[in-house]
Amino acid sequence: MKMRFALIFALLSSNCFAQNDASIFNLSGKTDLKDGEKITLEYCEVKDSAFVKNGSFEFRGYLKEPSLAWLKHGQTNVFDGPESVRVFLEPTNLQITVINEQFFKAKLLGSQTQSDWDKIRLKEESDQIKDKIDGLNKAIKEKGSSDSLKANLSINYAERSRLFKVVEKNSLDFVRNNPNSYLGPYLLSSLSRSLPKDSVRFYYRSFSEPVLNSALGRFIYKKLSYEETSKIAQPAPDFSAKLANGKTISLAGFKSKKYVLLDF
After folding, report:
1. Count of Cβ atoms closer than 10 Å to residue 65 Cβ
2. What value, to the nearest 5°, has the Cα angle with vertex 124 and ends 37 and 88?
3. Cα separation of 6 and 98, whole Å?
4. What does the angle CA 27 – CA 28 – CA 31 come to, to the nearest 5 degrees?
5. CA–CA separation, 104 vs 58, rounded Å?
6. Phi and psi of 63, rounded to 5°?
7. What's the DSSP call for residue 66?
8. N or C, which end of the chain is more exposed by having fewer CB within 10 Å?
9. 67-73 and 84-89: which strand pairing?
10. Do 12 and 215 touch, CB atoms closer than 8 A?
11. What angle do CA 243, 247, 250 make, to 5 degrees?
């Protein structure tokens, strides 16, 4: 799961702004981290950093469209966890509050895309359930398991599963009714695991031209194109690679062969 999110983030970050047609965003932050602590912001192939001073930090950059970003403190590969959180930036003035070891609870203001995302995924309710599950797991680790703790943990896991289903419905409703939102392709990417491929293509084609041409829209296009060319009985997409001796070979060069084995 972590690897899947890492791949998505890398693809979405690619070429999502050009400074000549972008606008400035200002991200002002409040935190309980100590002065001098480093916070990193990654977006659109940019990796920026800021240092906490008097409980505040600030980032400034360029965006031409709402874009997915990753705010983190310290070394972590988790996208939403104690020291990291995903947010949707917009080219405007933004404010965010982050708490040490609870970055996943970060509150970003000024971004309509973020506001829509928070409502769809029932952020406050989800955060409360995560707190309960984390607390119960910690108690079990420190004190040992008991029937009471196991029962409470089971109840909260069931509640989280219920929320997942509600969030999935909310996401689909949003995609259907908001063809101009840059959040749509991102939600559709998650929905593509459960929706029929024909439905994914239908909703993709319903997006407006600016959304289709966005980094998020292009990501979905690549995903759909990859899945189409990767079907059984379809011709394999051509690619080339350089050998150790400097020569380049391509899959097309083996078309006359009966079988081709690719060993990665």
Report:
1. 22
2. 60
3. 22
4. 125
5. 19
6. -145, 145
7. -
8. C
9. antiparallel
10. yes
11. 75
Long-range interactions of 155-158: CB distance < 8 A, separation 24+ = 156/129, 156/132, 157/133
Are the beta carbons of 171 and 122 closer than 8 angstroms?
no
Token pair listed for 110:
């000024």
Pairwise CA distance, residues 187 & 193, whole Å: 11
- Say if residue 190 is exposed, middle or buried (CB neighbours under 10 Å; 0-12, 13-18, 19+): middle
Question: Residue 170's pLDDT band (boundaries 50, 70, 90)?
Answer: very high
Residue 38 has pLDDT above 80, yes or no: yes
- Eight-class DSSP state of 55: T
Positive/negative CA dihedral, 141, 143, 145, 149: negative
Beta bridge pairs of residue 96: 29, 108
Residue 125 token pair: 């309710």
C-beta separation of 46 from 27 below 8 A? no
CB atoms within 10 A of CB 212: 18
pLDDT value of position 12: 57
